[in-house]
Amino acid sequence: MMKYYVQGLDCAQCAARIEAEFHNTEGLQDTRLNFAAGVLHLDAKYEGIAQSIIDQIEPGVRLIPAEAERSIKESNLYQNVLLSPRVLRMGVALALLIIGVVWGEVLRRTPFQAGEYVVFITAYLLVGLPVIWRALKNISQGQVFDEYFLMTVATLGAFAIRAMPEAVAVMLFYAVGEYLQDLAVDRSRRSVSELINVRPDRARVWLEDQWIELPPEKVEIGQLILVQPGEKVPLDGVVLEGDSYVDTSAITGESLPRYVKSGDEVMAGVINGSGLLKVRVSRPFAASSVVKILELVENAAERKAPTEQFMTRFAAVYTPIVVIGAVLLAVLPPLIVSTASFEVWLYRALVLLVISCPCALVISIPLGYFGGIGAASRQGILIKGANYLDALTEVSTVVFDKTGTLTEGVFQVQDILPHPGRSAAEILHYAALAEIHTNHPIARSIREAYAQDLDASRVEDYQEIKGHGIEAKIDGRIVLAGNARLLQLKGIRIQEIPHHKTIVYVAIDGQYAGAILLADQVKEDARDSLQALKEMGIESNILLTGDRYASAVIAAEELGVDAFYAGLLPEDKVAQVEDLKRQLGSGQKLVFVGDGINDAPVLALSDIGVAMGDLGADAALEAADIILMDGQPQKIVQALEIAHFTRKIVMENVVLALGVKALVVVLAILGLATMWAAVFADVGVALLAVLNASRTLRYEGA
Ligand code: ADP
Ligand code: MG
What we know:
This protein is about 50% helix and about 20% strand. By secondary structure, it is an alpha+beta fold.
């Protein structure tokens, strides 16, 4: 799959039609056109076909491979709309309209009223020709009822009843409205491209005894890169030398700089503060955090929210209905009532046509969602689709994984209890070796407590048993490190230690050898976040954990959850979430929040799966619908706030647009609305809706 920018695409309905045409084309069925971001993904071998489909529907729109984009000036990628012939034409048309209205009398006194015709027809053609042309072209392609058709029929009709100033005004305001909408769309795309600015474009790599600058795509895992103060870290890696404060705000939304030293991980896209860093690259650029973030954000708008889908379908029936209504309105009253004049009712029908354009809805809804997704990503919340953003507003149950999600997941080894005949050092040594290959928080803390180098070659037959622990052969001896369940499973008798701490039991060659007591801490903002969720109307916060009852009950108490389930294996968590889902009322949704370790199946199963923290956990990234770039539970609250705000804006737009239209329709039928009013209402509403939608993009939090 290759990424393309779609240059010059500024009509949401055309985008929908292009997409529909793709769906009927071999090889392009699954291609989604992201109008809001101006992005398209397809297999490079279909580029030609895709372009030719676009040419038929929207000539002038070009597919530009994203790779080529960097060599193209930005001003090229986004059309320069400010001082275009388009603006000039609108200006001249406006001048002619004013002349025509002010000197109407004079112009009409010319032979055959030629002066008047010349002025108005010229003005009309200046702004109207592109519209008429489009309407004709679309009709030739079998697409009849669209806004161009409506505008063309309405204005030509106005000419027919000699309402020439109105005809010009309708076209002119329509053109101005379109133009301003383009500006707004362009602006919101630009703010996404600002986001794209976090994308690093140079890496300084140690090659053949010197530092060489390369594009980050060319750098390989294991190579050494140098990042100077003030520079962007180009690739994910581990600090080898140096220490510094790094600004992670572009990636995680966290405003406080983070201190990193030798041995710490740094993510591509963060900005190095004060120190010089040598970093060993740990991930290829394509798999790095920035690239993933950008892909997620850009692709997000491809998954459309139900409201959005509804509106597209609605527009498709709404327009023909209004057109039929207009025809009836023009024809029926004069037929039925003998005193009714055809001309009066035709005028009213034309007003109806002008007002029937669905543009405001079609364009403002995707922009609203796109803005919401953009605002969220600025706070380190990556939402994979407008559908998830929308679904967040319907959440009634939030299920949390405990370890690493609501607790720090950074355990401190508190005590080691060796079995008679063993030493504490021996227990820790074997446990650390057994835990060598896993990312589980328990394993990390045991390795940390051991704090010496581990020789991986001593570990054979390594096996991680999910929800239990580890079995491995170390120096030829079979070592188990895990919970009581693990040792029981392997037929080893232990004395369970009655304690609320998390306990890792260790067995060597079938003999119980000792236990390690670990303590975890509830995250600082966890309790407040759960409280905030309740205040936002979430019915229940539920805690799931693989940990034992004794330690879960303490955490549950401290957190103030509504219910908790302990001692769960990963498959039990799945069953539990299935059960909770069955208990939901209709239209209620369940969110699962986990750290992505051992919980990918639950992430996938829940209505909305939220993964926290480490972008390295690939399975979680795939399975999750929302990714929180840092581990603060507070981010869930923010995500919900953004979702509600976006939904509110979208609903406002729907109500505004439909409300004003309904009003003008009634006024038109009663003969109280002029065509001037109709065109102001239409263009005005579209603009208001677009401006309103762009508020989501700037949303900073309640
Ligand atoms: P949770 O994230 O809810 O704690 P997990 O499924 O990750 O659930 O783990 C459940 C339990 O399994 C842990 O509390 C621990 O007792 C045991 N366990 C899992 N992985 C390991 C491991 N690598 N080492 C030791 N114990 C483990
Ligand atoms: Mg877990």
